[in-house]
Amino acid sequence: MKIAIVQLNYHIGNFEQNTSKIIEYIGLSKAGGADLAVFTELSVTGYYPQDLLERKEFIEQSYEALKLIAAQCTEIAAIVGGPSINPEPRGKKLFNSAFFMYDGAVQHVVNKSLLPTYDIFDEYRHFEPNRNFSVFDFGGKKLAITICEDLWDEQETQNEFGREKLYQLSPLKELSALNPDLVINISASPFSYNQENWRKNILVKNAIKYQLPIVYVNQVGAQTELIFDGGSCFLNKNGEIQDELKYFEEDFRIIDTESSTQNLQPKTGYIEKIVRALILGIRDYFTKMGFQKATLGLSGGIDSALVLYLAVEALGKENVRVLLMPSRYSSDHSIDDALQLARNLDIKYEIIPIQPMVDTFGQSLSEVFANLPANVTEENIQARTRGILLMAISNKFGNILLNTTNKSECAVGYGTLYGDMNGGLSVLGDVYKTDIFKMANWINRDREIIPVNTILKPPSAELRPDQKDSDSLPDYEILDQILFSYIELNLSPDEIIEQGFDETTVLRTVRMVNNNEYKRFQAPPILRISSKAFGFGRRMPLVARYS
Amino acid sequence: MKIAIVQLNYHIGNFEQNTSKIIEYIGLSKAGGADLAVFTELSVTGYYPQDLLERKEFIEQSYEALKLIAAQCTEIAAIVGGPSINPEPRGKKLFNSAFFMYDGAVQHVVNKSLLPTYDIFDEYRHFEPNRNFSVFDFGGKKLAITICEDLWDEQETQNEFGREKLYQLSPLKELSALNPDLVINISASPFSYNQENWRKNILVKNAIKYQLPIVYVNQVGAQTELIFDGGSCFLNKNGEIQDELKYFEEDFRIIDTESSTQNLQPKTGYIEKIVRALILGIRDYFTKMGFQKATLGLSGGIDSALVLYLAVEALGKENVRVLLMPSRYSSDHSIDDALQLARNLDIKYEIIPIQPMVDTFGQSLSEVFANLPANVTEENIQARTRGILLMAISNKFGNILLNTTNKSECAVGYGTLYGDMNGGLSVLGDVYKTDIFKMANWINRDREIIPVNTILKPPSAELRPDQKDSDSLPDYEILDQILFSYIELNLSPDEIIEQGFDETTVLRTVRMVNNNEYKRFQAPPILRISSKAFGFGRRMPLVARYS
Q1: Is the pLDDT of residue A159 over 50?
Q2: Which structural domain, as residue segments, surrounds residue B495?
Q3: Mean pLDDT of A283-302
Q4: Residue A308 sits in a domain of what CATH number?
Q5: Predicted ipTM beyond 0.90
Q6: What average pLDDT is seen over chain B?
Q7: Do A450 and A314 fall into the same domain?
Q8: Following DSSP, what letter does each residue of A217-274 receive, concatenated?
Q9: Which residues of B touch A289 (CB under 8 A)?
Q10: Among B267, B292, B318, which residue terminates a domain?
Q11: Are residues B446 and B335 part of one domain?
Q12: Facing B545 at nearest CB: one of A14, A367, A538
């Protein structure tokens, strides 16, 4: 059977665009001689529409779109993802469904059984799980259709301390009892830098265990925080990947389930994956929000340097402008490094020293503050003055402010709310500082783009004389390992100490993480590249006592 | 049977405090001659711990606390809520459980069947639903224990367009087949100004339908956004409420299931309920975060006046200080009204005019802005300058900034991010402007606390000459009705227009709501008083196209 794997970038709620894309690719599939074109999970709506699924007009528009698409399915079949209304009187209103279309109409509706409701997933919030399994004939084959998580009944890793079977059911076990010839899985599986490996393991294990070939079709593109990396593939029943589509790009391929030629993608390291993911994340945020231009503050440090590079890659240098905002504590090399980078990337920049504003605030507050000693208050005024200037550029010229906070800072609250934590999108908020250095070196692999001095000098916020990050934080090499153990691995402080880290450092780090939930609560959306990012995938109560 | 209804205010994760409170009340119950003391849902951890439930050390501490509590249950039984580890190899790691303790140990563990996963609820994220039902004998009676949502299989109102049966199971139907004598329900049912009525309806309907008396014990106190109002009660099998405990306060009463005397609470109107809820919300936020003192900007307008009144009620006048920050666009009456209120409430205030900072920003930006006309940029600089000043007070003196944005503004994005949207807690972000006027009048019912001029003058942001809210927004009477229909009732724009509202106004309002998701994403936590508040109970994608 010839199957078109259609890996597209959808826009949530943009029915017009999603529908015309799907229809275009049904045409291409037909022209290419495919018997069946397979699209991704919730393709007609984009994944994930969250509480838009609770709106009547949204569901109505989705059904209208599906009708238009089905009408195009003549002499070809298609599988398209979308919500369907639960006809039963009990349970959630909707199913997360795959619509099998043929002869101009929907012929079968297959509903998702395993509804991920952990980390960034909220599916049981909106959908009723399927409990009935069936296969059907098409083109002389029995097809078993599954939706994303349906193949993940046994998880490789788990948030919930090592539990392997999160669900009561194993959909593929139920389906395999019905003797299918082929498994089709439509997915919207968000990127993390490990996800490609986990995903392939799951697919390979399932193909081998049930001795069934699998057509796996994954969404590509970013939806605010979540980046979908594509990498759709076809595996034969021995678990060998025969076909693999591109990563981080739309792609389309007609495969023959009987062919045995292999056509795979080149392997990439995790740093390159993160770079590609973040560029896609920025680009799609701007495109889908209807924005073109970005701005950010360039400090001479490595974080803002990296964000600038990524923004230029994503949006083009003509769409990015930066502000240098030196203070009396800025070192000469910071300004030089920032200027050098702006020149390397040929970027419009302006310089506005912040001292006049900082002084005026100081004068206006002098009576209220009487003779109280300077403390973090005055440091925050500097960071917030920069925040106002950047937002002024943003408001006046329509350039969206990119936030430059990294994950290490974000974790320990080393940043000023309403100051350097400002921005429409956090580009690096899920990237640890130690990985940021690796990214900078990777970007410089052929020539110096990011000034070497920016990479080599000790990190500093430059909010008081001779300040260094290491004055108030453990070395990033240590800090990032503790943070990774606490956040990604969900280890307890005791377990982290048992790994050999200094007890005082571990307890202090964990306390900083817990005490700064309130800051992260008001942080911009963070592009997710790890298995546990700050944001809606990590929901921590604010008023809690942590111990 | 004599049952102690123990309605307490817990602190999430504060096992020491929660445990000693529970133990104290087991003692009081025993001393009062009770056979059984009933505590609330997840009482040992506080409701709702969110992803703390995924942390090993959290679950271990919870089990240790339960052991300490069980040891106290001699000559009295107790029902205490907490997570329990799922012993089965499949499904989520935990159950949401009621622990029945007697003879110094846990005798029965009853698990929750219906796991609310909508609006502000995330229970299926962490818990496996129970599917097995049993009753047990105690003191000559067969007890059926249920947990909160277990009684809500048929909902009075639904987010998901009018669906009445959200679940496959009806726990009370299953339990009633086992012939219990008494139903006990332990709850953590968050306040909204309608919730008391909905809750009583559910309880009355269930008692009558199954001809069973119900002991209903609800949590009280606030956990960040969520306010729990108590109002625990006992209903006889005819659905008559015999006993009703206090609202918005801890309370404790030993009831006799055979007695027929009635002891109810006075009825209160919804405006008074909102006032009491918000005062509790502020107080518990501060107490549980370990804060004492608050600050806010007093503009002379009604929103900041109301927040100041509520803060003084919650924290005491000695713990609140305010800043008046007039600009060249502030009218004389604004300053007079603000001063009058500060004097009425006997509050420390300071006056810092913002013009010096605004001018300095203007000078520093003059070259970059060349001769571009003034627009919203300059208005935002004013609001953000105020934001910096307030945060400076907050940082220097440790007074937490209270946000004064109301729900109408928050909905349409009429506010400045990093300016007047700043704050640790949004007090009025779930209260429509029209209700704010009603609250002010209710507060003034005996004497003028909030200056009458503050209530009567037309609302204005005073960011440019002679500005009025009505220049850019529909009248609040109209606006709030449209917003309520769109947000609380989840009606489509067409349905709202069919109610008789002007089409252009409806479409413009809905567009403003949708276009400002990005602002609300970075707003402070909002005290929830309605059935649909902004925040984690309303999850909307940012990059979506809304239509």
Answers
A1: no
A2: 474-515
A3: 97
A4: 3.40.50.620
A5: yes
A6: 95
A7: yes
A8: EE-EEEETTEEEEB--EEE-TTS-EEEE--BSS-EEEEEETT----B-PPP--HHHHH
A9: 518, 542-543
A10: B267
A11: yes
A12: A14
Chain B 30-59, CB below 8 Å of chain A: which residues?
Answer: 46, 48-52, 54-57
A467 and A353 fall within a common domain: yes
Q: Are residues A181 and A116 in the same domain?
A: yes
Best to test chain B binding among A545, A546, A547 (most B CBs inside 10 Å): A545
Q: Do B522 and A523 touch (CB under 8 A)?
A: yes
Omega prior to B349 cis, within 30 of 0: no
Positive or negative: CA dihedral A65, A67, A69, A71: negative
Q: Return the residue of A nearest to B394 by Cα.
A: A377
Question: B311 pLDDT exceeds 50?
Answer: yes
Q: Is residue B113 part of a domain?
A: yes
Q: Is A160 on the interface with B (CB under 8 A)?
A: yes
**Is B543 close to A91, i.e. CB distance below 8 A?**
no
Whether residue B164 has pLDDT greater than 70: no
Range name among B346-350, B470-474, B515-519 with the lowest pLDDT average: B470-474
Report residue A175 as tokens: 């389906």
Higher pLDDT, B360 or A88: B360
Total tally of structural domains belonging to chain A: 2
Q: How confident is the model at residue B156 (pLDDT cuts 50, 70, 90)?
A: low
> Are A73 and A169 in a shared domain?
yes
- Mean pLDDT for the stretch of residues B168-172: 94
User: Chain A contacts of B51, Cβ < 8 Å?
Assistant: 538-540
Which residue, B267, B288, B306, sits at the end of a domain?
Answer: B267
> Which A residues 290-349 touch B at CB under 8 Å?
none
Subunit contact A167:B90, Cβ cutoff 8 A: yes
Whether residue A337 sits in one domain with residue A305: yes
* B110 and B28 within one domain: yes
pLDDT bin (cut points 50, 70, 90) of residue B135 is very high
- Where does the pLDDT of residue B52 fall: very low under 50, low under 70, confident under 90, or very high at 90 and above? very high
In what order do the strands lie in the sheet containing A105-111?
Answer: A105-111, A94-102, A77-85, A36-38, A2-7, A251-256
User: Does the pLDDT value for residue B367 go beyond 70?
Assistant: yes
Say whether both A105 and A201 belong to one domain.
yes
For residue A90, give the CATH number of its domain: 3.60.110.10
Report d(CA A352, CA A341) in Å as an integer.
17
The arithmetic mean of pLDDT across residues A387-397, rounded, is 98
CA distance A234 to A539: 36
Q: Is the Cβ–Cβ distance between A185 and A216 less than 8 Å?
A: yes
Nearest to A505 by CA among A470, A467, A546: A470
